[in-house]
Amino acid sequence: MSGERGAGALPRGELRGRDVVSAKDLTREDAELIFEVAREVEADPGRFSGVLRGKRVALLFVEPSTRTFSSFYIAARRLGGDVLPLNEPEMTSLSKGETLYDTLKMLEGYGVDCVVMRHPARGAARFAADVISAPVINAGSGSQEHPTQALLDVYTILKKRGKVDGTSLGMLGDLKFSRTVPSLAYLISNFDGVELTFIAPPALQVRQEVELFLRERAVSYTKVTRQQEIPDAVSRLDVLYVTRLQKERFPDPSEYERLKGSYRVDMGMLRHARPTLGVMHPLPRVDELDAEIDRTPHAWYFDQASYGLPVRMALYALVLGDAG
Ligand code: NCD
């Protein structure tokens, strides 16, 4: 890729004009291209300052967000783009009963060049991509997927380990309602020799759709459901990816009350871990990840969050950037 570009030329590639709805649609080449540009952004952000000049990005967030919204916002501004932030659904006509279809059509009528959307419904991003011709970037579709989080998660592994191939990745917590877990599993399955371990009580185990996908791709995975087996499972990992119980997605609040606190990652759980084990978390954390880990070299999660910015700048540049 870099060989094709002259000094100062802007990124081109297969992602131009594409929707980013599912991590299943991203190939290894797509991911590596995004990572290459993300590294360039980190090395020389100034070079990218005009990539989105004259472009309008709408951020339509119908669910709470801190990191994803802020990083998509800052990323677009740093690239010189205009941002239309629609992140207070109660202040939009959606709260008056306007359909998502009409809201999207209106944004299209205003000439937005890209819609970044977070929505509580599975399938919402795919629907939006079908409704409007401008590229749609899925910033979270219910419990279904969160493909750009997966991009920054895999970028974190690449930066910290130096490679993604051969990663032994454990995912722990609410694997049932999490949307970051499926997207990460899909994206990392593009890499060679990856081994996945899903650590959760049976009621929170990874969804069947994820297992089916991994079987189709012949990705090796195991499930750990018993508390006493966790330290041993953790001892074999390169990365432990922790998730919050997705309280808002539990159909039955008493089920949340029953399961909360069923695991907590602390130094005790890591007692047999490799010294190089990286602990990741998409954040926000509630009480599933002890703050004592923050002070150890295991804590990758704040760097992980910070990589959201270069990765999202790279994604915008590739999907929307003017190839000059
Ligand atoms: C995650 C999300 O929204 O799915 N957060 C994020 O985007 N970094 C995880 C969560 O809310 O637990």
How many distinct folded domains? 2
Helix content: 25-40%
The ordered H/E elements are: HEHEHEHEHEHEHEHEHEHH
Strand residue content = 5-15%
Contiguous helical run count: 11
**Global outline:** globular
Fold-level CATH name of the largest domain: Rossmann fold
User: Which superfamily, in CATH terms, is the homologous superfamily of the largest domain?
Assistant: Aspartate/ornithine carbamoyltransferase
- How far is it from the N-terminal to the C-terminal residue, by CA? 15 Å
Q: Strand order within the widest sheet?
A: 7-6-5-8-9
Give the names of the bound compounds. Answer: N-carbamoyl-L-aspartate
In total, the number of strands is 9
Global mean pLDDT: 94
The largest sheet is: 5 strands, parallel
Please describe the structure with a list of short key phrases separated by commas or semicolons:
single chain, 324 residues, alpha/beta, Rossmann fold, 2 domains, 5-stranded parallel β-sheet, 4-stranded parallel β-sheet, 34% helix, 14% strand, globular, binds N-carbamoyl-L-aspartate
Commentary on this structure:
The protein has 324 residues and is α/β, with parallel strands linked by helices. It folds into two domains: 23-144 and 308-320, Aspartate/ornithine carbamoyltransferase (Rossmann fold, 3-Layer(aba) Sandwich), CATH 3.40.50.1370; 147-305, Aspartate/ornithine carbamoyltransferase (Rossmann fold), CATH 3.40.50.1370. Helix content is 34%, strand content 14%. It is built from eleven helices and nine strands. A five-stranded parallel β-sheet has the order 7-6-5-8-9. Helix 2 links the parallel strand 1 and strand 2 (82-86). Helix 1 crosses helix 11, helix 2 (67-78) crosses helix 11 (308-320) and helix 5 (147-161) crosses helix 6 (180-188). The longest helix is centred in the N-terminal third of the chain and has 16 residues, at 28-43. N-carbamoyl-L-aspartate is lined by residues 67-68, 140, 146, 149, 179-180, 244, 282-283.
